[in-house]
Each structure stands twice: as C-alpha cells, then as structure tokens.
Amino acid sequence: MKLKMPPYVDRFVDRGGAPRYYFRKRGGPRIPLPGLPWSAEFMAAYKAAAEGQGAVPKGTHAIVRGSVEAAIIGYLGSNDWKQQAQTSRELRKPIIERFRLDYGVHKLRALRRSHVQQIIADKTPSAQSNWLKALRHFAGWAMRENLIATDPCAGVQTARKPQTGGFMTWTEAHVASYRDMYPLGGKPRLALELMLNLGVRISDARQIGPQHIQNGVLTDYRPQKGRTTNGLTINVPVHGDLAKAITAMKVTGATSFLVTSEGNVYTAKYLGQHMREWCNDAKLPECTSHGLRKLCLVRLAEAGCSPHELMSISGHKNLKEVETYTAAASRKKLAVIAMAKRAGIALDVSLPLDKLREAYTAATGAAPVIAGTAA
Fold first, then answer.
1. Do residues 148 and 139 lie in contact, with contact meaning Cβ atoms separated by under 8 Å?
2. Between 1.10.555.10, 1.10.443.10, 1.20.1740.10, 3.20.20.80, what CATH number should domain 172-302 receive?
3. How many angstroms separate the CA atoms of 243 and 216, rounded?
4. Are strands 9-13 and 19-23 parallel, antiparallel or unpaired?
5. Is 76 within 8 Å of 96 (Cβ atoms)?
6. Domain spans of the chain, in order of start
7. Is-contact 83 228, C-beta < 8 A?
8. Cβ-contact 24, 8 below 8 angstroms
9. Is the pLDDT of residue 62 over 70?
10. Does the pLDDT at position 2 exceed 70?
11. Rg (CA), the chain
C-alpha cells in the first residue's frame, strides 16, 4: 500500500533502490528528512523544516530537478564517481564543483558542444584537457541515467599541449645525491628505493607491503591506476637495494612498508607532499616521484631490455608508451657502435649500454673528461 506523504514532502528512490525524503515548500530549499515517514525521527525533522528551523547549510538554495546542479549531486553519489581512481577524483572534484557553481542553475538537457567549448576556451592546454576529461565522465554518466540524449563533449577540441617530455627523468647523479642525504633506515630512502627498483607510481609505493612479496618477488600486484579498468598485474623481483632499505627500517606497517608516524598508510597526496619536501631538502627541486619510475625504465632499456620486457615491469598496456625508452637507449648504443667502427674497434653489441661504453673507453684508451678542468 502506498503511504501518503505529509504536505510538501517529496519521495525519490536513489540508484541503490533506497527511498529518500525531502521537505520543500514552493521556492524554498530542499531539506532531507531522516527515517521513515510518520516516524518520530521523521516528524521531528519535518516540524523543524516546516517552521523554518531545519538544518540548512549556509548557501543552500532550491535544487531544481533537471538542472546541472541536481545532476551533479546524483553523479557525486553514484558508483561511477566512486569507482574512479582516488587520484582521478582528487583532480576532477574541484572541476566538477566549479562547473556546478558557475552553471548549476541551467538545464542539463540544454548543454551543447558549443557551451563546453566556450567553458574551456580561456584555460591553459593542460587545464582544458583536465576539464574535458572530467566533463566527459560526467556526461557519460548522465547519458546512462537518461538525463541527456547526446554527449555535449563529443567533438570538443582542446589546444595542443607544448611538448615538454612530461616529468623529468632522474639521473644517476640525482639518485646519488638523494642517497647521500637520506641513509638507509629512514622513510625518505625507502620511498625512493620502492619507486626506483619496482618501477611503481607513488600511489602504489604507499601501499605495497609484506603481503605482496612472495619468495622475494612482488607477486601478482595490480597497480592502483589499473584496478578500475582491469589493468595488468606485475611480478617484479625485489632488487638488493630495495631489500636493504626494507631490512634497515626499524618500523614498517603490517600491510604497507611505508607508514606515517602514527602508523597509518600514507595517502598518495600526503606521500607526494613529503617527497616534494625530501627532494627540496636534498637540493633537488627539479626531481619528482614519477621521475624515479621513468629512471627505472631507462635503466632497463639501456640494459638491452625489449619493449615487452619493460611492459612486464611497468604494467603498461600500450606498447608505444614504452618504445620511447628503448628507442632512446638504442640510439645511444648505436652512437657508441658507430664511433667504434670509425676507430676500427669490434665491440660485443649484445652488451648493455654502460658495459658497451666501458669497453669502448678501454679499447680506445680514452679517459673520462670532467667538465670544468683545465688542460
């Protein structure tokens, strides 16, 4: 039997099938009502709302059904939003809230491609890309919920990003300076060794722990970035440098090697802030945590690893993403081989790059040149 609602009460059923009740007089704010209709808890909140005493947050206003704001409220409570990676939510939440603040009163069905193009027009190329990714995900959810018929983000163009090469790759000199600053036994050193020797992102370095290591191998670990998209698992033997760093720690967590001073697992954002501070204190302001992952792949490529071998470590699905590392390493090897041919020296081309360079130097009798020295 359908239960009759008190005056000015609306009933909605959310995506999980749970009923929601709101009090709203014409033109007034929507005030959520707890409990079931006519219960003591419900009626106490109803009476307070009817008398204008409901707990209405500062800035609360009428939420119009079919508006952008109403859709965003549903989106932020949906599984589509919650199942995104934490880093994606942290990046996109300010964008969605800004979109809600600027355009929330407008009808969602009136949103067109030209509007989205105009919204992102005055932003930097990187900001345009981030805004479009956030709005596309929102629009995809809205289409599945039948709130809009077509995707207003389809065909929207972003400005071309300048080719910066992304995060700077650490050099071996950077690593040496950092290690000199932070000896074994401390969290700064362990953080570096985790990312450098496993090739993982900071979002994974924060949560890898004893349960992930079996017989000296990081076993069947699925990086966080690929967990919502069925990404590949990785199996990476623990390098001796990492094993020493873990063993040297006086305190590690039960589920994560890296823990805060309170014994909690780091969030990616909090660990990233610490890495920024640690690098700055080591006089390495140009270095970032992601640059360690890139150096790991550079080392593998220069040791002669194939793109597929790199992918088994990095977890990449796209071959093109890792081919850049092997291509750069191949060019460096070819340069040594070419100069050896010019000098009439036969080298074992199967050697990794560093050994090949050593062999060339030994064969030519050339001494390393130190910048800034006088003849």
1. yes
2. 1.10.443.10
3. 9
4. antiparallel
5. yes
6. 1-62, 68-144, 172-302, 325-364
7. yes
8. yes
9. no
10. no
11. 28
* Residue 74, phi-psi category: left (phi > 0), alpha (psi -120 to 50), beta (remainder): alpha
What is the Cα 153 distance to its own chain's centre? 22
Choice between 340 and 29, residue whose per-residue pLDDT is larger: 340
**Residue 250's pLDDT band (cuts 50, 70, 90):** very high
Taking CA 124 as the corner, what is the angle to CA 118 and CA 128, rounded to the nearest 5 degrees? 55
Considering the entire predicted model, what is its pTM? 0.62
Q: Which residues pair with 135 in a beta bridge?
A: none
The DSSP 8-state label assigned to residue 237 in this structure reads E
Tokens read off for 151: 């995707």
The encoded tokens of residue 343 equal 């000098």
CA 225 to chain centre: 6
Strands in the chain per DSSP E: 9-13, 19-23, 31-33, 213-214, 217-221, 234-237
302 vs 1: CA distance, rounded Å: 73
* Confidence (pLDDT) at 128: 95
- Taking only the tens place, the pLDDT of each residue in 329-371 is 888 888 988 988 888 888 887 888 888 889 999 988 765 555 4
Q: Which of 101, 98, 104, 100 is nearest to 127 (CA)?
A: 98
Q: For 145-170, what is the mean pLDDT?
A: 86
For the chain, percent of residues with pLDDT exceeding 70: 90
Residue 358 has, within 13 A of its CA and on its CB side, a CA count of 5
Centroid of chain to Cα 51: 47
What is the rounded average pLDDT for all residues in the chain? 87
**By the 8 A CB rule, do 78 and 72 touch?**
no
Report which of 97, 227, 78, 85 is spatially closest to residue 140, judged by C-alpha positions.
78
